[in-house]
Amino acid sequence: MDTIYQEWSSFYPGLQQIVLFISYKKEKRIEISTLYEDKNRFDDFVLELEGILEKRNHSVVSEVIKTYLNSSMDDFQKFKLCADLCSFLYRAGIVGIKLAAEDSVQYSFRNKTVLHKNEINEQAKLYIHPTFLSALAIEDN
User: Fold this and answer.
1) Calpha distance 95→28 (Å, rounded)
2) Cα separations (Å) of 36 from 69, 88, 106?
3) Which of 44, 94, 99, 141 is exposed most, by the fewest CB atoms within 10 A?
4) pLDDT at site 127
């Protein structure tokens, strides 16, 4: 994980906080809507990330956080922010994404290198890459 954080931190500052945010339930399969169902936890995460990114105004992560904070911050906007963050994690190779029930899990090293946030819908599921399960203390059942 440290190598991934170092490799991608200049492009995605706050990557470690994003990974910790999505992996807190210690599940290898994550429904995107569950990331923002705990409003207080989600709001705390966004504010923490904003604080980390204060000095990084021109990063792609700071731009999506600013866009979110300047929006209505309803569930749709929360989903859009999570879709952005998931596309970052996908590109860094930390997660795979299954876009529909009938699809297989896509990984950036095997499928498309970049998955645009608009391709991620509310039925999409994240899968922590098996390489990182142990580092994130997630059991591989």
Assistant:
1) 9
2) 14, 17, 23
3) 141
4) 96
- Tokens 């000095």, located at residue: 55
Report pLDDT for 39: 93
Return the CA Rg of the chain. 14
| pTM for this prediction | 0.90
Length of the chain: 141
Q: What is the mean pLDDT of each run of 10 residues along the chain (141 residues)?
A: 92 94 94 93 95 82 92 94 94 94 88 79 93 92 69
SS3 64: helix
CB proximity list for 40: less than 8 A, separation 6 or greater: none
CA 91, distance to chain mean position in Å, is 10
Would you say 68 and 36 are in contact if contact means Cβ atoms under 8 Å apart?
Answer: no
Question: Which residues, 6 or more positions from 5, have their beta carbon under 8 angstroms from its beta carbon?
Answer: 15, 16
The conformational region for residue 11 under phi > 0 = left, psi -120 to 50 = alpha, else beta, is: alpha
Q: Which letter does DSSP use for residue 108 in this model?
A: T
